[in-house]
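Chapter summary example: a protein plus zinc ion.
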Amino acid sequence: MSIQGICLCGKVKVELDHEPETFTICHCDSCRRFSGGVAMSFHRGADLEFDPEQVGRFTLEDSPWSERGFCKTCGTNLFYRLKKSNDYFLYLGLFGDQIHPRFDSQEYIDHKPDFYHFAEETKTTTEAEGQERLKAYLTRS
Ligand SMILES: [Zn+2]
Ligand SMILES: [Zn+2]
C-alpha cells in the first residue's frame, strides 16, 4: 500500500509505503513561523528525493545543521531535514486524512505560547534538553 502526500498546488508529491506511527510538534520560534502556527511532523528517514526544479530549500543562519523545504509554486511547507544524517521530517498536512499517527511528543515545550494547550498526554522536551540531544547528534561520528 502506498500513501501519497501532496502540496496545495499538486506539483510536489511524496510517497510513503507505510503510515507513520507517531508525530511530534515543535514549539520553537522558527518552526512556528515556518508552519504559520503549529508545526506537526513525523520522521520519514533518508531515502527521499525531491525535484530541485519544484522544491526550494533554505538553511537558517542559526541552525546550519538543518534545512527546510517548500513548494516553489504554492509555498506549501514540506519538510525539515537534518543534513548530517539526511533525515527528513515531513509535515503532517501533506497527507490529509490518510494517516493517523499518535501524538507522541512536544519539543521546545518551554517556548509554547500560553494561549493554547493540547489535550493529549505527550512526552515533552525543553530547549535545553533539545540542545543537549543536538550536540550529541552533531558530535556522533
Ligand atoms: Zn505546490
Ligand atoms: Zn522547531
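Key point: The helical segments are 29-35, 127-139.
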